[in-house]
Amino acid sequence: MSRSDPTGGLLLGIGAGVFLFYKGFRQFREYKVVADTPRINIRSVPMGFVQIQGKAQPRETLTSPVSKTPCCFYRVSIDRWKSGDRGGGSWEHACTDADGYQFYLADTTGKLLIDAHSAEYDLPQVSERVIDSQAHSALTTAAGASDADLLKYVNYAQMHRMGQAVSGWLEKKVDKKLENHQTLDPKKEQGLLAFRELLHAIPDVKKTGHLPTEALQRMIEAQGPLADPEREAHRQQALARLQTMGGTGLTDLIMHQMDENPVSGRYRLREYVVLPDQEYFVTGTCVENTSGQDGADRNMIAKGTHEPTFLISSKPTSQSVSTGLRSTALKMVFGGAALTLVCLALLLVHLHLF
User: Fold this and answer.
1) Which residue in 113, 140, 268, 314 could disulfide with 146, CB within 3.0 to 4.6 Å?
2) Helix (H) or strand (E) holding 195
3) CA 163, CA 254: separation in Å to the nearest integer?
4) What CA–CA distance (Å, rounded) separates 53 from 320?
5) How far apart, in Å, do the first and last CA atoms of the chain sit?
6) What is the pLDDT of residues 316-332, one digit of tens each?
7) Rounded CA separation 291/289 (Å)
8) What's the CA gap between 16 and 343, in Å, rounded?
9) Are 276 and 72 in contact (CB under 8 A)?
């Protein structure tokens, strides 16, 4: 196929159109769910799918990476500039990084815990920065982080996203093995539990500032003694080094390696945050919080198993939220259908089939 042959591009266009069409129908379903679910007071929230509105009250706050805003939760969409073959270029999505702590949503009747990690967001953009590794500034301005720090952050965000995906996949594998704990050796089961704890902590090493070194030590100890003398010697060396460095030293080593290898290229970062004491509209599933410590933590809003819709919005009413979802869904449905039909027609003409 020659470089001037449009067949590949047209096939990609058809695929993109079908994807948009399908995603639009999923978004339209979400619009119907949101529009048909009435808002209730927090004190009256039952188990199951609900809509509530209230002010965000943080348990802990963190600083957003781009604008350095104290917040309950942040989401950063990262795009990379891709130059075209004939000049020009366009932005392509690289990854999305989201992080933060659980927070409460409170109205005049009570408060309820929100676990925002799996939510979709309809929030105003608070910051947008474009950075270039060839011409970055090390100065921190009133607008937020320096270009040099943001290049390091892009590297962290990509690793954070990858770490979450890999950790989630491995945790499922570990959980399946632990379900059959009757057939597991107690030492092996202890190692798997420690490994799962370690997997859960690795993606958040920058936020927490430390690794669970006790879990890492338990995991290494559960592997031995090994029959191969050379491998057993390496295991003992790893244990000795872990005890010598400690959790802080090991974390510093990991962070140093990340900071010493910043990404290259041109990036656009768009940041959205959940701010303390601001009003938000939450649509999600009320579930039991197994790690709750008091009455206010007994239940929480999260992404449901049977109803995946989980939306956090800054819009003041459910009507404005559902209207925005409806508009986006219709654009995706009709835009995807139009793109598919146009690319299909051009492909048939190119192949002399029409």
Assistant:
1) 140
2) helix 186-201
3) 13
4) 13
5) 21
6) 655 545 565 667 777 88
7) 5
8) 10
9) yes
